[in-house]
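Example 430, ligand nicotinamide-adenine-dinucleotide.
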Amino acid sequence: MIPADSATPAPASTGVDSAFPPCFDRATWSAPRKLIEEDHVTIGVAVIGAGMAGKAHIAAYRVAPTLYESTLPDLRYVAIGDINAELGAATAKRYGYERSVTDWREIAEDPSIDVVSVVIANSLHLEVVKGLLEAGKHVLCEKPLSDTLESAREMARLADEASSIARIGLTFRRQPGLAAIRQWIDDGTLGKVLHYSGRYWCDYGCNPQGPMSWRYRGPMGSGALADVGSHLTYLSEFLCGDMRSVAGGTLGTAITERPLPLGAVVGHGLAAVSDDYEPVTNDDYASYTAQFDDCMGTLEVSRVAAGYPNALNIEVFCENGAASFHQDTPSQVRLYRHDDMPGKNGYRTVNLGSDHPYIAGGLPMDVSGVGFGQNEGFAFQARAFLEEVAGIDEEHSLPRNASFDEGVHNMEILAAVAESAADEGKKVTL
Ligand SMILES: NC(=O)c1ccc[n+]([C@@H]2O[C@H](COP(=O)([O-])OP(=O)(O)OC[C@H]3O[C@@H](n4cnc5c(N)ncnc54)[C@H](O)[C@@H]3O)[C@@H](O)[C@H]2O)c1
């Protein structure tokens, strides 16, 4: 587990597991030392997967050195790997990477590449990450860690044995609004969480003509639950501490077959389809209740919630008040405190800006009201990874990305939800 950042320790009374690093706190942050001054090196970067999230990684490595002061070694943007040659080439040109390759092994074998993001279908993570770690590359792998718990555990074992760094991208903890809520829980503004309510509703799967892709294949639990439930579950522990049990697991498939695409499918996109259909074998919808040390919560995810393209919505109800975040308005959070003004009390909207995590000194215009979206989260995630690879100590870095062990823990919870769902919602202890 990653140790807590000593600059901003979490008070024991909040119930938040101190193993989670607290949020980046502007007040205690000072510019990191440049550790590679004398021994100047260049970090070679590659990304495997140029699809929806792949492009977010590819762009993020471009932006990462521009966040905060210039403390990273020079970066060299070496390669994009994608089996779709046309997409790989166009993406390399768009983002200024030197070349594209169709076989990820060329990236593993290239000695000029140090850092590789793996942003391809979950079922491919194990094979590719294994090859990269064996070649000594530092690996940032997308969530969920893998398609099965067994292969995720194998990846964690490989990461333990590796001489290089292996991390998993759980991007939303970089969201300033959610990081601010975590700070308010830690510093007593909100205090201990009494009740967590989280939902992640998406509509990328609501069109029955949406083409079959890797997202719709695999056992129950590998659909919406693994795809967006991995984020929601991780964030629940980020805010409430370790989960102890799950119950009421429910998994459902609303659209049971999908047409096969006639060409490549990228991300959630539509494509020309054939008249041939393939069964959808995993979940469009999932929900469960969670027991934490100090509170309970409900979590609900969907990929068929028409009209909600990306609706991550989180509420915490706490000892001293409450707060909520909605991805539709990512530069705002709502805050309520019991003791504000008796008789005139209620939720207020807080516009996120220089007083909140990640923003000050980080962005070109780091002032309130400029907005802060999901793409910025990838840039801060990449920056944290590069700082770790560059050997900048934790005290002078953004909080580290999650370890593969945390990725396994996340998947153990998802597996427990699937187990609960398979047995009429029984309680499963973690
Ligand atoms: N953190 C986030 O917010 C977030 C968002 C979306 C997806 N993801 C994760 O990112 C990963 C990729 O998802 P996506 O939506 O970008 O998928 P995608 O389908 O859009 O893209 C996958 C790409 O991988 C390529 N590909 C397939 N096999 C390959 C191989 N053997 N070698 C190289 N390239 C190959 C495909 O051509 C495609 O371009 C998944 O693990 C997903 O869960 C994370």
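Summary: Residues 229 and 271 are 25 Å apart (CA to CA).
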